[in-house]
Specification:
The protein is an alpha+beta fold. The protein has 4 helices and 13 strands. It has one domain. It is 12% helix and 29% strand. The longest helix is centred in the last third of the chain and has 14 residues.
């Protein structure tokens, strides 16, 4: 964390020597990463900030819209199982498993009562000893007794990106889960098929119009946009080296994906892992 970090020439001359130290000793518990969220009709930011449109990408720390497409460079990702609170429930993440097997410390053997849209009585979720024992990642667990309901706990891809057009904003987190999970897996497959490191690749993160049980919503799209310049490659690689051993968190981790509730997805790719894809 003490390596010199290159800076751009827009800084005053006396500041162009680079960053030689951190603000004290920084560990994973100190590191909170900004998040870029895809705005939906139900996004609370739509009511809080002026000028934001459905389908905009919103930076939650800068509190600004980046429009409906953003050029990104993939830095790294984390695959997790997350038990999300229903939309509108301010608890956000109820339980998390970073290895997709064991619940993280403090999340085992807990009970959560939640109120689901369209379900009359509250539902209770029990994490039990581990993910498999809980059954919460299996179909039929979102609404106990309804075999058509989705898994209560969703596979979640937490992807760290950086934008060559917003370098001052640094890296940011994009969360793909539930209905956006298949789009993340499509991106992962594209990344693995290309012949250079992830941080040498450029994509355009955009949106598509979708229909779900809750109505119309926006979903993510990822389109290849060539390769990074030498300067951008070195900048993004430095970010990877900085973050690769850290368990980073987000400043805001609520699920903003569409939640189709009891409906089983038509395309099993939404929940199927991609064979042969490695974590980067």
């Amino acid at each position: 964390m003490n390596a010199v970090t290159k800076t751009d020439s827009s800084l005053p001359a006396h500041l162009q020597g680079g960053k030689s130290t951190s603000f004290g000793k920084v560990d994973a518990k100190d590191l909170i990463v900004p998040r870029v969220k895809l705005m939906q009709a139900t996004s609370p930011e739509m009511q809080t900030f002026d000028g934001i449109k459905i389908g905009d990408f919103f930076h939650n720390v800068l509190e600004e819209s980046w429009g409906q497409s953003v050029r990104i460079i993939p830095i790294m990702r984390r695959k997790e199982i997350v038990l999300w609170a229903p939309r509108g429930d301010e608890r956000g993440i109820l339980a998390r498993s970073r290895d997709c097997i064991h619940w993280d410390e403090g999340f085992a053997n807990l009970k959560f009562e939640v109120k689901l849209k369209g379900v009359k009585d509250p539902v209770t979720y029990e994490t039990k000893g581990n993910v498999a024992e809980s059954g919460l990642s299996e179909f039929g667990s979102a609404i106990p007794g309804d075999a058509k309901s989705r898994p209560a706990a969703s596979e979640t891809q937490r992807m760290l990106f950086a934008s060559p057009d917003h370098k001052d904003a640094g890296p940011f987190l994009v969360i793909n889960t539930r209905t956006s999970l298949a789009r993340a897996k499509g991106l992962i497959t594209k990344i693995e098929m290309r012949p250079v490191d992830p941080w040498g690749q450029v994509y355009v993160m955009g949106t598509s119009n979708e229909k779900g049980d809750e109505g119309d919503y926006k979903n993510y799209t990822y389109t290849a946009d060539g390769y990074a310049s030498e300067a951008d490659f070195n900048w993004a690689r430095d970010l990877y080296l900085r973050f690769k051993d850290l368990d980073f968190g987000a400043a805001d981790e609520h699920d903003d994906a569409s939640d189709p509730g009891a409906a089983k997805p038509k395309d099993d790719a939404a929940t199927r892992d991609v064979s042969g894809v490695k974590t980067f």
